[in-house]
Each structure stands twice: as structure tokens, then as C-alpha cells.
Amino acid sequence: MTTPRLEVDLDKIEANTRHLVEQLDPRGIRVTGVTKAALGSPGVGAAMMRGGASGLADSRIENLARLAEGTPEAASRTLIRSPMLSQVERVVRSATTSLNTGLTVLDALDLAARNQRRTHHVILMVELGDLREGVSPAAVVELARETRGRRRLRLSGIGTNLACQSGVVPDDANMGELSRLVEKVESSTGQRLTVVSGGNSANLPWALSGSDPGRINDLRLGEAILLGTEPLERSVLPGLHADAFQLVAEVIEVGVKQAGPRGSLGQTAYGELVPIVGTASRRGTFRQVILALGRQDVLLDGLVAPAGMEILGMSSDHLVLDQGDHRLEPGDEVRFAVGYGGLVQAIASPFVTVEETRRETWSG
User: Fold this and answer.
1) Cα(61)–Cα(80) distance, integer angstroms
2) Angle at CA 232, nearest 5°, toward 98 and 352?
3) Which is a Gene Ontology cellular component entry for this protein (predicted)?
4) Does the structure show a pLDDT above 50 at 363?
């Protein structure tokens, strides 16, 4: 089989989605499945929808276009990065909804929607401490009134994003502030908001803790569905599969090598002053394995080696392992778990083949 390849178990993605939907539904919170780490895969999107997601979302309009064509059951497709002015026509064509932060883009979306004779739904993002996208809490009411005045735009709700830029933890304080802002917007506009998007997978510890969710009724979940983890501690959440994605690479060399580098040391190929492969503290020899996998394929810190093996370093095209007690030969395959950064890069690499599998019958 072709290597390197990324094996995707769609049944586990479906099961993860279903588990989270069942956990959050009693709290009055819907799940919007985020496909950006899966490069907008229609197969992954369909698995999320089978698991009960209320809609799909992605940060790239190119991915949403793929979903629009390949996942017709997803009636709601949300662009979760603020639209670029240069792409507003494509946004209106491929996304039913977008997250927005400014009037200039909203005006352009309104014009594009008029040109296409469509209605485009808008969620206004509020900055609540993480210092990424969003207007200030003091400005959201006025922006909501302005949005209501655009002929082809529909104000669906407000939202926020935490834990991405600065690692701010979602908690009762910031989620309570978002709920209070909903009430202010509704009072000022005279409109009931249908979507209050509290954030991403980092919100799950808060959402499942028993805290009062207030007006929060939607979470945008990607990492938890795809990898079974939450971003705050990267811990596996109970009841979720953490192995829906596996990266498989092929052994191209096996040999006994000295444990540390020999000779005067300068920068490595990627500019490190301390060599990645080997350290001065290593002594003796070891059974080194080289795989046909490099930084053009995946992030070094996005890989988790099999038990008993140790990753020693990576260049553009080679991954070096200490194979420990394993006995590998050229042509053998090694399977790695991937973290979020590893998944994002591997699935986008032109050198990594993606294989999605689904059993004919899934019993849960």
C-alpha cells in the first residue's frame, strides 16, 4: 500500500460525534462539526452528520465548497474565519453562515448576497479575552443593529472564541458574559437570537461540568470529534476514540549507529543550534531506523511513536527512530498517532495519501 498514508476511521468519527451530541443535548447545546483539520473532507463531514451534528463548519471557503458539493445533508455550512473581502462572492455561494467582526465585510457580503439573490446568515463574534477575532462587548450591540439593517443579511446570533490565541479557559465568567450580551442584543434589536456559539472543543470541560450553560446553545467541535481530545490539556475525553487517524510510514533503512553525533557541530538543516538527532549525553550504539517521512509531510511534535520506540529527529524527508526492542526491516510499516498539529499538516501534504474507511454496518 502507498506510504506515507493517513488512515481515517469514519466510524470512529461518527461515534465520537454521537457521544458528544448525546452528552450536550440535555444541556440544550447543539454540535456544529468542524472539518478544517480534515481539509473539508466530505466523508468526514458526512460521518459527523450521521453522528448527529446540526451542521458543518470550516475556516476555509475552499473546504466549504467541497462540503457543499459532497455533503448535501449538511443544510448549515458555516465559515468560522472572518471572510476575506476578496472572497465574499464565494462565501455567499458556498457558506450559509459566516462569523463576522466588522461592517466593511458585512456590507460586501450584503452586496454579494443581493447579486446572487440569496440570504446570508451572520454570527457576530465578540472578543472575551483571548485576543483573537471579535469586537469588544461594548460594540456588539451597535454592530448587531447595523447588521439588521442590511437587506440580504440575517442576524442569527453571536459567539466567541477562546483558548486558541492566548489559551484563555472557557468558564462561568466569560460564558456568563456572553449570555448577558445576548440579552442586550435582543433587547436592542427586538430579535430573538437563534445561535449563541460559545466556542470550540476547549469549552467541553466547562459545558460538561454541570455549570449553567445560560444562553449558550452551540459549540463548534473539531479536535474532540476527530482526535477525542480537548485542547486545554490535550487529554482524551471519556467515551471518545483517540485513534480515528493514524499516520503510516515505511522503513527505508535499518542499521546500528552510534548514539551521539561525532565531529564539530553547526546548525542543522532547519537552523537548530542543538542537533535534533542524538544528544551529547547519549553513549554507545543503538539500532537506528529511518522512515520515509519528513517535515514536508508532518510536524515533528505532532507525532506519537508506538510504544517502545523513540523519535530522535526529523529532516525534510527522513524520520529517525530508536526502534528499541522492535525488529524492523526495510519495507515494514510503522503506525503513529497524530496530534492536532500533526493531523493538520499531514492531511494537507501532497505526499501523504488519505484513506477513509467505513464499515457497511455500524452498531455504535
Assistant:
1) 9
2) 70
3) cytosol
4) no
d(CA 362, CA 10): 10
232: which DSSP letter? T
* Cβ–Cβ < 8 Å for 55, 76: yes
Q: Give the DSSP letter of residue 84.
A: P
Task: Find all residues with CB under 8 Å of 350, minimum gap 6, and list them.
Answer: none
CA distance 296 to 316: 6
Residues 6+ apart with CB under 8 A from 2: 353
Is the entire prediction scored with pTM above 0.70? yes
Burial class (CB in 10 A: 0-12, 13-18, 19+), 159: buried
Question: Is 356 strand, coil or helix?
Answer: strand
Structural domains in the chain, CATH included, are: 10-231 (3.20.20.10), 245-355 (no CATH)
Cell of 307: 510504544
Per DSSP, the residues of 94-138 read H-SEEEE--HHHHHHHHHHHHHHT--EEEEEEE--SS-SS-B-TT
The pLDDT tens digits of the residues spanning 222-243 come to 999 999 999 999 999 999 999 9
d(CA 259, CA 284): 6
Q: What percent of the chain has pLDDT over 70?
A: 96
Q: What are phi and psi of 282, to 5 degrees?
A: -80, 140
CA gap 98, 67 in Å, rounded: 15
